[in-house]
Design brief:
Layout lengths: L14 H23 L1 E3 L5 E3 L16 E2 L9 E3 L6 H8 L7 E9 L12 E10 L7 H25 L12 E4 H7 L5 H12 L1 E5 L19 E13 L4 E11 L2 H10 L9 H7 L6 E7 H9 L14 H9 L6
Parallel strand pairs: 1-5, 7-8
Antiparallel strand pairs: 2-4, 3-4, 5-6, 6-11, 8-9, 9-10, 10-11
Helix pairs in contact: 1-3, 1-8
Protein name: Aspartate--ammonia ligase
GO molecular function: aspartate-ammonia ligase activity; ATP binding; catalytic activity, acting on a protein; transferase activity
Catalytic activity: L-aspartate + NH4(+) + ATP = L-asparagine + AMP + diphosphate + H(+)
């Protein structure tokens, strides 16, 4: 457990006012986001069968919550870590065309998460996915989409300011693009997290690209599952967050693997056994569309826009009693 306590923290909204702001942000953002990116809202599962290969494996060490169902024989059911792979199959299943996409409210349980101001065992985000052409699998498409998302987030800042002027946290006016290798070259003696903080504090908002593969040092900046993002065409949207004096990640996204990048990354990850799973076979045989997609943290966006000190102020979850007591002692009211 790791907790950062801002000095003299005073929430600008009461708990009930915060609940009203949460509802407003979530409802307003998803409507504008869907309109700007041409996405339709779909219902999505909270659990999938393990044997389909549809669950997100994250870094490969986190264990999903699993169970069996009375009418499903001995099939292992897993609560999703995210819907990264499910969405791509859904686009095919529901007949989405080029330039069209979907978004959904994704609720997940990540029981092995290290709890802190940003991280909870309960994950709530807008998972989204959009059909692109094979020839659009490039940095230009990635950057253009990132700019669209940044524009919607900035729009939400203005909307929140209009409705809750006393509480809005002001954001930078521009997003900058940097790669993990550029950060390693500039700050070779720093840890990846220290580099993220340094560049985000300097620029205000960054899209940190190329996460998952090894850098020149032979080390990885951070882990990424090998079977959904193309490690050369992905990244995280991060803002410098003054209340906690560190960067906050709002979105992880990328252009999805094709047959070639899937095979290459599974080999690097020593996970080629996954190639026999139904989802991976569909990618290999180009039976699912080429896509770009990602997730945008709902609670983190609320936290960012409202200047909150802890994600537990904008979502109801479970926390260690020690963390609850420390928060209460410093005016951080967990839901």
């Amino acid at each position: 457990m790791h907790l950062i306590v801002p000095k003299s923290y005073e929430p600008k909204l009461s708990v009930r006012e915060t609940q009203d702001a949460i509802r407003y942000i979530r409802e307003t953002f998803q409507d504008e986001f869907g309109k700007q990116l041409n996405l339709s809202r779909l219902s999505a599962p909270m659990f999938v069968e393990k044997k389909t290969g549809l669950n997100d494996n994250l870094n490969g060490i986190e264990k999903p919550v699993s169970f069996t169902m009375k009418d499903m024989g001995d099939s292992t059911i897993e609560i999703v870590h995210s819907l990264a792979k499910w969405k791509r199959v859904a686009l095919k299943r529901y007949g989405f065309k080029l330039g069209e996409g979907l978004y959904t409210n994704m609720n997940a349980i990540r029981k092995d998460e290290d709890l802190d101001n940003y991280h909870s065992a309960y994950v709530d985000q807008w998972d989204w996915e959009k059909v692109i052409r094979k020839e659009d699998r490039n940095l230009e498409t990635l950057k253009a989409t990132v700019k669209q998302i940044f524009k919607v987030i900035k729009h939400m800042e203005h909307e929140v300011w209009y409705k809750f002027p006393q509480s809005v946290h002001h954001l930078p006016d521009e997003i900058h693009f940097v790669t993990t290798q550029e950060l390693e070259d500039r700050w070779p003696d720093m840890t990846p997290r220290e580099r993220e903080n340094a560049i985000t504090k300097e620029l205000g908002c960054v899209f940190l690209m190329k996460i998952g593969g090894a850098m020149k040092s032979g080390k990885r900046h951070d882990g990424r599952a090998p079977d959904y993002d193309d490690w050369d065409l992905n990244g995280d949207i991060m803002f410098w967050y003054e209340p906690l004096d560190q960067a906050i990640e709002i979105s992880s996204m990328g252009i999805r693997v094709d047959s070639e990048s899937l095979q290459r990354q599974l080999k690097i990850a020593d996970a080629e056994d996954r190639l026999s799973l139904p989802y991976h076979q569909m990618v290999l045989n180009e039976e699912v569309p080429f896509t770009i997609g990602g997730g945008i943290g709902q609670s983190r966006l609320c936290m960012l826009l409202l200047g909150k000190a802890h994600v537990g102020e904008v979502q109801a979850a479970l926390w260690p009693q020690e963390m609850i007591d420390q928060c209460e002692a410093h005016n951080i009211h967990l839901l």
